[in-house]
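Schema walkthrough. Field components (list of strings):
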Amino acid sequence: MVLQVTKTNNANYQTVISVGIDIGTTTTQIVVSRITIMNTAPGSSVPRMEITDKEVLYRSQIYFTPLKDHHIIDADAVAQIVLREYRVAGLTPEQVDTGAVIVTGETAKKENAKKIAESMAGLAGDFVVATAGVNLESVLAGKGSGAAAHSRDKHCITLNIDVGGGTSNIAVFKNGQVIETACINIGGHLIEVERQGDMITYIAEPARAILRECGLSWQVGDRPGLDEFISAARLMAKSIIESITSGDISPITGELLMTPPLKLDYRVDSIMFSGGVADMIYGDSRPVSVSQISEYGDIGPLLGWAVRDELAAAGIVPEKPGETIRATVIGAGAHSVDISGSTITVDEAALPIRNVTVVSPFVKGVPEAGGEITAAVHLAAQRIISDGSAQYVAFAMDGPAEISFAAVQELAQGIAQGAADFISKDKPLIVVVEKDCAKILGQCLKIILGEKGEIVCIDQVVVGEGDYIDIGKPIMGGRVVPVVVKTLVFENTATRKD
Amino acid sequence: MAAESQMEQLIVENVMKELAKRGLTGNVSPNQEETTKKAARPQPKSEPYRESGDDPLTIPEITGIWVPNPENIEAIKVMKQATPARIGLYRAGARPKTGAMLKFMADHAQAMDAVFLDVSEEFLQRMNLFLVDTMAQDKEEFLKRPELGRKLSPEGERIIKEKCEKNPQVQIIVVDGLSSSSIEANVPDVLPALTQGLTAAGIRVGTPFFIRNGRVGVQDHVGKVLNAEVVVSLIGERPGLVTADSMSAYIIYSPNEKTVEADRTVFSNIHRGGTPPAEAGAHLVDVLKRILKAKASGMKLNQ
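Field assembly_structure (string):
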């Protein structure tokens, strides 16, 4: 099968090719999607570019993630998979406009995970970005499974839980927007079993906690009976259900949560399961023997059955997702990239820029007085300079209380003065505003800075302190830029309860 | 006619007698006829309508959701956020509720005001814009005779010849069109943003001024008189019930006798709820650069 990568490019309609690569605990997959961006404003209005369609063009085979041992990912083998799938798809890295590589679940804990993600990103295309983080993984899975769209279409709150090989990633969506994420270290591949056999070949660290709680002292090489497998799977399933329902959290669930638990101070309307284990949750198989459940070399099928049983006991009827095992990779491929507002100011030569550290100089909105703006921006810039780690910095803000010319001029003046030490020829001034005012703010900044430095001023992107963003080269006749927000904002929203 | 007024008088007399019987009008005086006539006459309407006492009528907010026990309040919230249309306000029988009706009438009144009121002198002074008239003598003539709003008065032509810089690359004019209030709401942000951007790009900008009772086509006349390469009109749009403050920018490259409507580039919907005026000003700078480079506007620019 050769993929016909057709692209359209004019000022009002453009398609971009986006790839997603997910290197998970159990499986590695690739998808290719086509994202359509259109000017949705009538001809007589200022253009408004929007992503109007996301179509998955190609789904790779599902590979077992190649590992050298239980600590190291086999980089060469992963690269071979990527190259092979590109060849099969008839795709070259030059044709790829954007996308994301994500290393997920237990694999993210491997020693060379970060390096792999970055090198695969380079291999896959010019603006394919490396992403990580359990919360981002949760969001991408929920978008890929269709939970985000479900909540938007039905105007409800939809919780998606992606039960994979190593982790179960939870994201809650309200009207299409993520409101909470969490992650628990439970998955179907934490205990590996001889394929079609009954001998245990590997027990991952988090599974030891489960076994301890069940009073089981399995060792690699043991051949436990079906009832012992069932008791371990049941406890895992109970923990999963506890993590997505309100009520007390048992010590073992607390121990396995990798994030603070969900607050759940709202009513969840639908629950969706995705991930490799989900197929078993929506299926109707029953475990009859260990050799029957070990067809994938792990306890995944049994965990799926146990979750289905626990759901029935709790009286929960799960909603069917659009995607199960491919949810995360589709999330990475089709849902990782977004676009900026349509009236922006960018020096094209400064782009693309990756791994821009976001700082929010203003805690409570932009102050009115120019002096206060300067001081706050200066403080934020100093913090970054003294830290020394960040190469590129974006100053993020919601924008002036009222977008008047005078207020924007004042803001530009304050930013330019406050960030003066930070701007140089090879470091553009990057400003990200929420409100639609990047064109005029950029114009004012350009006039103030003159030849001192390049400017990237974009709007209608919501980011916060501690996020990282990647900004691509302008598209749609230079009107918008692709933006990938690698948010970490959910990490610190609550204190861990364990 | 005579029969009608006789009937009217009869009704009024009967009502007054009835009221008198119930002791609601005090004594029935001998000149009862006089009193009833006086009461039947309509009261003078010089006072603004007041609901009760001295409080002026407050216009109800319609941002809330008035549907009792909605099935899915979240869905209504999202829908309300997606549109300024009057939804989620429930009903009284088959009709709007009083609050919704009052707001509708207030918005309509505001739209009427936008058309009929003039841009204030104080505003023009603050923006440093001088005023010229079109051939239309007043608002009424302006509304009835569209062609008069497309031409400057001889006096207006004389003034701009005298006061304006000739042969500019870009001539900006502010025209009231059908909404004076949109001019006062948006020009203070669009004009400086536009002028700043053009000047920074090294583009020669002419002397801006204000045209009263003007229509879009008046830009052709101005362009010809001042020999401007491009004319930009910031003009008030026909007001609607969502906003009375929406402004458009019409741009024409080198207008002449052969100019047709399709030659104009237009950006509409400039107001706080649409494209913010300061942002629109900066966007217009880009558009004008493109027009100057292509030496064309309107459909010719898109070819």
